[in-house]
Amino acid sequence: MLPGILTDMTSSAGMAHIGVVGLAVMGSNIARNFARNGHTVAVYNRSYDKTERLVADHGNEGTFVPAATIEEFVASLQRPRRALIMVQAGAATDAVIEQLADAMEEGDIIIDGGNALYTDTMRREAAMRARGLHFVGAGISGGEEGALHGPSIMPGGPAESYEHIGPLLESVAAVVDNTPCCTHIGPNGAGHFVKMVHNGIEYADMQVIGEAYHLLRYAAGLDCAEIAETFRKWNTGDLNSYLVEITAEVLAQVDAATGKPLVDVIVDQAGQKGTGRWTVKAALDLGIPVTGIGEAVFARALSSSVAQREQTAGTLPSGKLASPIDPADRETFVEAVRRALYASKLVAYSQGFDEIRAGSDEYDWNIDPRDLATIWRGGCIIRADFLNRITEAYTANPDLRCLLLDPYFLNEMEGLVDAWRHIVVTATELGLPVPVFASSLSYYDALRAERLPAALIQGQRDYFGAHTYRRVDREGSFHTLWSGDRSEVEA
Ligand code: ATR
């Protein structure tokens, strides 16, 4: 028997503190993280070779209980049994849940750590509750490295189950300022909903960084090494974040085969696994404008519309374009790009928090926005210094209706907005696409506006569909007799 590996099923029965089902990269890494933190971990994978490989390669990192069948796996868990599922989202997750539920007993806890759609999580939670089991949909962010060294964990599900899983999950999560990046988010689908919006924000954050890069390259004429250096510098200020840090690394990378910057030999078609799209779909249903995330999802879709781009690139007329930035003005321009990036990013986060509040209200989840900013400070892909400011903003005013109204962010915007406008105008004049910079600015201006053209839209709706309108000066609903004498009647 290898050290630390309990293979005798009689002696290992009921020994494991937690079990992990699904030992692909994320599952193996989180199982190792539990083991390294002193927990006895049962491990099971549909094909046994992955289980064998995990214990052969990493058995010395802690105590593993490898199981060949789901029944063996369940039998090896301490009660209440805690099983973390790390398999493909969708049908595979449903299949594993059924197998576990059949082998488990009342009060046992199934945790789905995959990227499930929150409505699936709500359905599964209800089904497991009816069988006397606890079901916890837990968002886990941080990729492979996070899973191994400390992810950000967003568990939903019944509050009682958190008493049994909270300490375990917190012991493997990232820690910032002595606070683990894991807390109970709310009932049923709350954890996966929040993880979904987290990913949506990540899409927007990556896109604004991409837009900044594009402008530095094609408006300011900097080369990749110079842009990498610029991002490195930015990472020491307000924009300090994991995504800015890795952007510098990617841009500094030189392709060994060609000697070119790696970014120049990567095909410019961005992929997606669907969580950004889900965020936007949910936002549409909730009636919350998440324009930054929406444009970021569409930007990826456009980049991957290969057949269309082949025909449109170099064909559609540009009109007269402005000249690139004069080298003498570069430094000012670069700083303006930084401000535009920061402002657009603030809008994306503000919109994401709006969506979370709307989801929380819709489903009675009672999500505390302070918790999110706190648990996203470490482990996850959008970890950033300024999340501390978001926590402070919601601590000062838990009912804040818009993050941008917090005094700190109001003051920041004051210093950003001129540069932001300048950059959107310049990009437009140069014919360079900045969908999130530009749409975020329009969103911001719409939020600022005393009057919106929505009044005209109400007039149009009343004209063609008698949908009625309200007046600014009187209570009630009104309709104009458009096809009659055009007098107004009370509806
Ligand atoms: P990654 O992207 O890290 O490879 P994934 O595709 O999300 O991970 O999940 C793959 C895991 O789901 C594997 O553990 C896989 O088991 P196998 O190694 O046996 O293929 C597991 N998986 C996929 N479909 C499954 C199913 N129907 N039942 C059980 N496990 C399944």
From TrEMBL:
Its EC number is 1.1.1.44. Substrate binds at N115, S141, G142, G143, H198, N199, Y203, K273, R300, R461, H467. NADP(+) binds at G22, L23, A24, V25, M26, G27, N45, R46, S47, V87, Q88, A89, N115. Gene3D superfamilies: 6-Phosphogluconate Dehydrogenase, domain 3, N-(1-d-carboxylethyl)-l-norvaline Dehydrogenase, domain 2, NAD(P)-binding Rossmann-like Domain. One of its GO terms (biological process) is D-gluconate metabolic process. Keywords: Gluconate utilization, NADP, Oxidoreductase, Pentose shunt. The keyword NADP applies. Residues 191-483 form the 6-phosphogluconate dehydrogenase C-terminal domain. One of its GO terms (molecular function) is phosphogluconate dehydrogenase (decarboxylating) activity. It catalyses: 6-phospho-D-gluconate + NADP(+) = D-ribulose 5-phosphate + CO2 + NADPH. The active site is at K195, E202. It comes from the Bacteria. It is an enzyme of class 1 (oxidoreductase). Pfam families: 6PGD (PF00393), NAD_binding_2 (PF03446). Pathway: Carbohydrate degradation; pentose phosphate pathway; D-ribulose 5-phosphate from D-glucose 6-phosphate (oxidative stage): step 3/3. Homodimer. Belongs to the 6-phosphogluconate dehydrogenase family. Catalyzes the oxidative decarboxylation of 6-phosphogluconate to ribulose 5-phosphate and CO(2), with concomitant reduction of NADP to NADPH. This is 6-phosphogluconate dehydrogenase, decarboxylating. It comes from Corynebacterium choanae. The lineage of its organism: Bacteria, Bacillati, Actinomycetota, Actinomycetes, Mycobacteriales.
